[in-house]
Amino acid sequence: MAARSHEVLAPVLRDIEAVVLDTDGVITDSAKVHAAAWKTAFDTFLTEHPPDDLAQRRPFDAGEDYLRYVDGRSRLDGATAFLVSRGLDPTEASVHAVAGDKERLFTERLREHGVDAYPGTVRLVRALRDAEVPVAAASASRHARELLTGAGVLDLFDALVDGGEAARLGLAGKPRPDLFLEAVRRLGVPPARAAVVEDALAGVEGGRRGGFALVVGVDRADGPDTRRRLLRHGADVVVNDLLELLVEGAGR
Questions:
Q1: Segments of the chain assigned to CATH 3.40.50.1000
Q2: Is a pLDDT exceeding 70 seen at residue 103?
Q3: Which of 24, 77, 101, 199 is catalytic?
Q4: Beta-carbon neighbour count of residue 58 at 10 Å?
């Protein structure tokens, strides 16, 4: 009888001994919820505190501005980066205000609608576990555990380092590699033998700075310029879906 085929890791992962995956946009379909919450918070702030330059008063772009300024960063770092990009000199109070507004909006939408895990990511993680490759989730968000639990995939991961852990341990935010390095430390594998999977520019840059053997960029939007940016910021390869990191193989 012929051996049953099953999904195995693509050659690019064959020598990898551990994998760290970002949460929002890589594991869970939550990046769009973050982006929508940021848009409402930033647009409200810009209306109430308009920049002097008329050209800088345009609304927050949930695609371009999200990717460039806030994706992968902590709320405070993201709020600061975007407001500075619009020619503003934000105070600590204003940064906390807009970040707090975003947090409220995100939490409301998350609890009302929930989020799902990407099927391709779940299949990849299961294949990694079948190959006895430990897997961690990492995120600058304090909601990562809630997101993974709600999506029913928390138990697939051997470790989780989220925004709460980052604050407790004093870990710097992306593009610093601290989150990833702590995650792979918990897996017991040095970064030079591990991979990072990220969809944010700051995240792939963090993976490169951390000395990881492989940095995989994820381009869900398949935009005309996103793949090039991910590669420029440090990705070794870019995929649209993590299914691209699996191939059919003979059964064991």
A1: 5-30+115-250
A2: yes
A3: 24
A4: 12
24 in catalytic set = yes
CATH 1.10.1200.120 assigned to 5-30+115-250: no
Q: Is residue 150 pLDDT above 50, yes or no?
A: yes
The dihedral sign for the CA sequence 241, 242, 245, 246: negative
Residue 77: exposed, middle, or buried by beta-carbon count in 10 A (0-12, 13-18, 19+)? Answer: buried
Our answer to whether residue 219 is catalytic in this structure is no
Query: Of 22, 29, 71, 178, which residue is the catalytic one?
Result: 22
Burial of 218 (0-12, 13-18, 19+ CB in 10 A): buried
* pLDDT band, residue 2 (cuts 50/70/90): very low
The phi and psi torsions of 251 (rounded to 5 degrees) equal -65, 155
